[in-house]
Amino acid sequence: MIPRHLKITFGLLLVAALASGIYMWMLKRHERQAPQTAQLQQPVAPPPATGTPLTVALYLADDQQGALHREETSLSLPADPSLRAQSVLRAVIARYTQKDSTHPLPAGADVNDVYIVDGTAVVDLNDALASGHRSGVMVEELTVLSLVQTVAANLPGITQVKILVNGQERDTLAGHADLADLYDVAAVNRAVGQMGGTSSP
Questions:
Q1: What's the predicted TM-score (pTM) here?
Q2: Could you identify which of 9, 17, 108, 174 might form a hypothetical disulfide with 135, taking C-beta atoms 3.0 to 4.6 angstroms apart as the criterion?
Q3: Distance (Å, rounded) from C-alpha 82 to C-alpha 108?
C-alpha cells in the first residue's frame, strides 16, 4: 500500500504540472494574438479591387478650417455598389489615420460594411472609430458630413445615409453628432457649402 504522504506529494506534483501546462498554453496563445492586435492598429487601406481605375471624389475634413474639401483620386472599384461605397469610405478613413492628417481618427478605425436599400445607404462603422473618436461638436460633425458626402458623390441615386456602429443604432458618435436619424444627402450638401467647403456638384 502506498503511504499517504506519497499520495499527497504525487497529487501536488500532478496539480503543479497541470498548472504549468495551462500557463504555457496561455502564453503561446497570447503570442499568436499579439501580431493580430498590432495589425489592427495599422491604418486601414481600401480593399483590393479589380477593374479599370476610376476617378472618385473624396470629401476630406480640415479641423483648422472647419470645412470639407473635395479631392479627386484614382481607385479600382468593385462593380457592386455596396462594395464601391465601402472602398471610397475606407480611402477617406485611410487619409484620416495618417500622421499628417488634417482630421485625425483613431488607429484601427474602419467601415465594417455598407448596405444599400432603395436609395438609402446604411454605413456600419466599427467600434474602434466610434469609441476612440474625439469628442466635440465640430470634429464629430465633420466626420459624419465627410462620410455622407463621399458616399453621395460616388453613388448617384443615394438620397439618405444612416450610420450604425457595429451593426447597432447609436444616439451620437462621441457625445454630439446625432446618429439616431437618417442624414438627408441634399441637406448635407447644402451644409457643406455653407461651411465654406466644397459641396458636391
A1: 0.74
A2: 174
A3: 21
